[in-house]
Amino acid sequence: MSIRWRRFAVIGGLGVVGAAFLGGGIASGQLPMNIALSGQNFTGTTTAITAEGITAYPRSVDTTAGAQPSIAVSIDSAQLSDVCLSTVARGLPLIGDVTLFARIPGDGATAENLVVDVASVTGSIEVSDVRLGLDAAALGEENGARTSAVSVGNSWAPSTRIDIIALAASAASITGLTVSAESGEHYC
Which of 95, 131, 167, 177 could form a disulfide with 151 if both were Cys (CB 3.0 to 4.6 A apart)? Predict the structure, then answer.
C-alpha cells in the first residue's frame, strides 16, 4: 500500500485548521460547548469558583447509561481557577483502563449560562442573597415537574470537588487548556 503524502498533508492540514477554528470559537465564547462521554461521569476539581446567579434543584438526567438522579446547578456567570476534569474509560481492547484529563491552570476559565448536572459536590462555600424553597418551574428552570429550588445571588467557593454527570455552557473562555490521557485509573 502506498501513501500519497501530498494528499495526506492536504487532508491532515485541513483537519488541523478545522480543529483550530472550532477550538478558537469555543475559547472566545462564540461557539457553545458541551461535554458528554457515553454516560460516564467526570470528576472535577477547582481551587476557587466565583459565580453569579445560581439556582440549584433536583432532577433526572437521561444518559446512555440510563436515567440518573442529579442536582442541576444553573450559573449565569462563573470564573474558575485551577480546573481539572478527569474520567476513566474502562476495559479498552489491548489497552485496559485509560484516564482522560483536561486541565486549565490559574484563572484561565470563565463560563456563561453554565448548567452542571452533578451527583455530588464537596467543599466550602460563601453565599449572598440566599432563597430556599422556591418553585423551580416558576424560575424557568424545570418544566413539567414541581420541585423546589435554591437560589443564590453571588457565591465564592474555595477548593471544590464535583462529580459531574453532564455539563453545558452557552459560552466559555479557556486559556491554557491541556488535554492528556494516562494509562490506568486516576483522578484529579
Answer: 131
pTM of the model: 0.71
Tell me how far apart the alpha carbons of residues 85 and 187 are, in angstroms, rounded to a whole number. 8
Closest CA to 45 of 127, 135, 122: 122
C-alpha to C-alpha distance for 44 and 121, rounded to whole angstroms: 9
Instruction: Return the C-alpha cell found at 26.
Output: 469555543
Cell numbers of 135, please?
418553585
Angle, CA of 117, 75 and 67, to the nearest 5°: 15
Burial (CB count within 10 angstroms: exposed 0-12, middle 13-18, buried 19+), residue 139: middle
CB of 42 closer than 8 Å to CB of 164: yes
121 close to 54: Cβ distance less than 8 angstroms: no
Distance, C-alpha 29 to centroid of its chain: 15
24-71 pLDDT tens trace: 444 444 444 444 445 578 899 999 999 999 989 888 888 777 888 999
Please state, in angstroms and rounded to a whole number, the distance separating the CA atoms of residues 122 and 85: 15
Over the chain, what is the mean pLDDT? 79
What pLDDT is recorded for position 92?
84
Kind and range of the H or E run holding 125 = none
Cell digits for 14? 485541513
Determine the residue type at 153: G
